[in-house]
Predict the 3D structure of the following.
Amino acid sequence: MLHTHECSDLKKGSGDNDDESVYIKSCNLDSMIGEEFYAVQESISDAGIIFCYHIKIGSEEVLGHIKQDISEYSRDESKFDNAENCNAKNFIPDLTVGKKLERVSESKHEYIGGDAKYCPNGKQRRASLMVVLDKSARGGATSSAHEPSTCNYDVTVVLQSCTYNRHNDRLETAIH
């Protein structure tokens, strides 16, 4: 059973269906500390290049991070264009996107203090993280990373339950 303190309404899904399952809700990240996910993102500057991200939800007491594998290839030499290749087995961290947590709210975390390599004017990378509940989502979990501007990332993990446990479900990644 999903408890009301674990998520809050974000917006209603599209369509005329008033069923509660079309609501998208944000999950309480404080109840997900230590959970890990993987996400993929296509390069904004080089078409066809796919990056893999490792997300570990942290807190002020527990170190979390968002790291990026920019190698384009996984350990078994296959490209990350197959989102299933972005996983613990294949991930090789090249850059830290963010390592210091700035808690914006219970449903949104900012990770700052990332590497400045390849960023303009020595600017450090940073990322915002949201984990959302969408009962209509396919599979157990999906995740994506988006780079709206150079070295600034928006990372979203979509779950069918805010009580997701990585040991009981397979994470699916989506390219966005």
